[in-house]
């Protein structure tokens, strides 16, 4: 049996040689020698003031101390009670850096004379932690401010240090333009009586990847960079975000999850697959790496309670890894509840090419299928779709086969027979996968038409993927095209049906709603995905002209009337490369991220940590409620659920949804299946029929909704299927371990050709 423990195995200590971890774009001034990977970092557009700056004023007894591990090799320290330091600055944010160990105590922090909090500087550490972020605040109104720190002593220690202050601000023309637009936001929100938008919370880490893991929490995963959220003395690159309180818990990630894919398995375990090399002990943002992320399979076991103290990522590259390196891979759950890992690149670069292409699939857990014995299986489709074929759009279909779209092409792949059925090309030369990134969705499945699948792919770009980066401009228009196809024999013969969004979009997110509509949000009107590659970069962004107003697509309306932005609020936050959006169990849409930068930046289109919440109009309506439901919906079974329904409602639907794993505009495994039901709606007891098998809904976690007269309930988490672990072939598993080595591609990156303009 494939239990939690066979997923995790036994943690075996191992050591790795340290090698150059990146061949791509490197920030000026990045260190090439070993140095502490500490929270201290000065993002482009920010400014640092060390402890000796004339703008830093001390009161009481302070001693200057010297250390090679301090900013500018010195810091100030005081053990005197009530000794204070003041620093006046102009900006929107402030960070205080100093040291932590068991000799330090507490400090009171004030801004503009207002008490903010007591900061615990004491740390039970064997050695002093240097250049630590002791306090930060990023949401100040732009202007002049004064930070004051007072030594409050403490029962366990009495020292307080000042190493440096970093001032952050949004002081560039592009952001000022966005702020001017934002001045109209409040009025727009008042007028937009149907939809509302609010900004609340900070993600703490870049929201490159997003998955809703429970009624109370979302998982956020980033690349290794100098995020403002810290853990164990260094910046974090993963976090759990509380959907209710907006508290953020850092995760102790080990390898670089830079542009990884992910999926939930049959038993509810989430896997995060691939990435890039990373180091946590070098300050070069391009060269972070104790553990190589290229072959990483990170395990996140089910964590369904509001208390997430014991929830974290697990890695053991000795026992759990992919057979080949994967960067920009798509991962989906298939009909037996295992994961299919699709494509990617063998190492970091930008546009894919034949040198670095990984034109294969593999499975987790590994399968001995088609003579592979757990090793990768080549797909001709992933060769034919070069160059722009990273992060392909993929969905498991009701036949058990898999729909895959990349570049200008699409196919249906029968993984059980290893056969490809090529589909008509995406119309009008539009490319839809990275870096010409579009977004796709499998439209809701219903038993009323025997679960006939239909796909919708929107946005992207018609830019030729053989052009060099220096020949592409950030101002070249994206595509407004949406292509829709019914995946039946008749539908395929009819081909793609083309519609157009109100605005072109690249890097949009298509979010399935429980009403059956599709929300399209985020993205830009021009350029392509990535950073640091094209002409006319804005900051480092390859794209420009952010699209700030969402659009709703109603698939059941007549062609020509399906798109609407009526009642939609307009944001003042650009959401470009590395942005995400997902439906939440509550029914609103969480929008986060945007970081078209190698590392955290305060310049144009800088690193965005603010979180927005887009609320549909039915959140304010009288909503149906699921009072009680079984925890498991076994295939082909019936179950009784207790509900509270509005009086005299006859239009009732029941649906199970997978919110998906979201990254780079790919909403992997996203799905909505309507269920048959019977009973008397007036009594509140409905008898529902579970999906017939794993083809219709791949076994794993889902969110049950009641939709009454177009108004959905909150989603209730259930397990669809038996909840067991996916099948394991121990021979195939052993074959992967014997045929690959721990981080075997570490050496191949040093000095190797990344294939053109290197980037994220």
From TrEMBL:
Keyword Transmembrane: no
Name assigned to this protein: Copper radical oxidase
Domain of life: Eukaryota
Signal peptide annotation: 1-17
Chain ranges of the Glyoxal oxidase N-terminal domain: 237-617
Keyword terms, alphabetized: Signal
PANTHER family: GLYOXAL OXIDASE, SECRETED PROTEIN-RELATED
Domain Galactose oxidase-like Early set: 623-720
């Amino acid at each position: 049996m494939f239990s939690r423990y066979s997923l995790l195995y036994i943690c075996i200590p191992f050591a790795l040689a340290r090698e150059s971890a990146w061949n791509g774009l490197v920030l000026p001034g990045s260190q090439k020698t070993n140095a502490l990977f500490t929270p201290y970092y000065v993002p482009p557009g920010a400014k640092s003031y060390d402890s000796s700056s004339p703008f830093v004023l001390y009161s009481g007894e302070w001693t200057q101390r010297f250390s090679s591990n301090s900013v500018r090799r010195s810091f100030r320290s005081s053990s005197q009670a009530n000794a204070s330091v003041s620093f006046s600055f102009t900006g929107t944010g402030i960070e205080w850096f100093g040291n932590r160990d068991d000799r330090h105590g507490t400090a009171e922090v004030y801004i503009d004379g207002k008490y903010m909090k007591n900061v615990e500087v004491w740390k039970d550490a064997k050695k002093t932690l240097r250049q630590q972020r002791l306090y930060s605040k990023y949401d100040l109104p732009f202007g002049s401010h004064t930070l004051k720190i007072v030594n409050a002593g403490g029962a366990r220690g009495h020292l307080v240090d000042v190493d440096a202050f970093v001032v952050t601000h949004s002081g560039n023309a592009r952001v000022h333009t966005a702020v001017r637009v934002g001045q109209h936001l409040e009025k727009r929100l008042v007028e937009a009586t149907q939809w509302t938008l609010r900004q609340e919370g900070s993600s703490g880490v870049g929201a490159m990847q997003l998955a809703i893991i429970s009624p109370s929490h979302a998982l956020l995963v980033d690349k290794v960079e100098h995020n403002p959220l810290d853990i164990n003395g260094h910046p974090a690159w993963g976090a759990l975000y509380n959907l209710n309180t907006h508290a953020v818990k850092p995760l102790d990630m080990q390898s670089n999850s830079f542009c990884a894919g992910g999926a939930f398995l049959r038993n509810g375990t989430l896997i995060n697959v691939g990435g890039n090399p990373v180091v946590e002990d070098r300050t070069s943002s391009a060269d972070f790496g104790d553990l190589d992320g290229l072959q990483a399979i990170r395990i996140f076991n089910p964590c369904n309670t509001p208390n997430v103290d014991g929830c974290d990522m697990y890695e053991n590259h000795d026992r759990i890894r992919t057979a080949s390196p994967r960067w920009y891979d798509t991962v989906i759950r298939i009909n037996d509840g295992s994961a299919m890992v699709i494509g990617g690149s063998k190492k970091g670069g930008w546009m894919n090419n034949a040198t670095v292409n990984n034109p294969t699939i593999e499975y987790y857990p590994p399968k001995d299928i088609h003579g592979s014995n757990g090793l990768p299986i080549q797909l001709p489709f992933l060769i034919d779709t070069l160059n722009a074929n990273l992060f392909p759009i993929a969905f498991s279909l009701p036949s058990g086969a898999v729909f895959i779209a990349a570049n200008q092409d699409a196919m249906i792949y029968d993984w059980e027979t290893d056969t490809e059925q090529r589909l008509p090309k995406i119309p009008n030369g539009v490319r839809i996968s990275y870096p010409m990134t579009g977004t796709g969705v499998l439209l809701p499945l219903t038993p009323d038409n025997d679960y006939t699948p239909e796909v919708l792919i929107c946005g992207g770009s018609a830019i030729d993927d053989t052009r060099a980066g220096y020949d592409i401009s950030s101002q070249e228009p994206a595509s407004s095209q949406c292509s829709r196809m019914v995946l039946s024999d008749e539908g395929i013969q009819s081909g793609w049906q083309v519609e157009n969004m109100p605005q072109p979009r690249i890097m949009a997110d298509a979010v399935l709603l429980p009403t059956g509509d599709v929300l399209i949000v985020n993205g830009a009107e021009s350029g392509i995905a990535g950073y640091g590659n094209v002409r006319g970069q804005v900051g480092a962004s390859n794209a420009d002209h952010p699209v700030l107003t969402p659009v709703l697509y109603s698939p059941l309306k007549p062609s020509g009337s399906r798109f609407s932005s009526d009642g939609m609020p307009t944001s003042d936050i650009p959401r470009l490369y590395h942005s995400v959006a997902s439906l939440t169990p509550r029914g609103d849409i969480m929008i986060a991220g945007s970081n078209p930068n190698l590392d955290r930046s305060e310049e144009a289109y800088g690193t965005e940590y603010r979180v927005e919440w887009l609320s549909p109009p039915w959140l304010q309506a009288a909503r149906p409620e699921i009072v009680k439901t079984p925890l498991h919906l076994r295939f082909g079974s019936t179950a009784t659920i207790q509900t509270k329904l509005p009086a005299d409602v006859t239009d009732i639907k029941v649906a199970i949804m997978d919110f998906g794993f979201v990254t780079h505009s790919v909403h992997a495994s996203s799905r909505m299946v309507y269920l048959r039901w019977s009973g008397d709606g007036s009594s509140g007891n409905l008898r529902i029929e579970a999906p017939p098998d794993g083809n219709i809904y791949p076994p794993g976690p889902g969110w049950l909704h009641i939709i009454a007269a177009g108004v959905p309930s909150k989603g209730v988490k259930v397990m669809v299927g038996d909840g067991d672990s996916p099948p394991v072939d121990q021979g195939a598993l052993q074959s992967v371990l014997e045929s690959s080595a721990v981080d075997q591609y570490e050496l191949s990156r040093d000095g190797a050709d990344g294939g053109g303009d290197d980037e994220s």
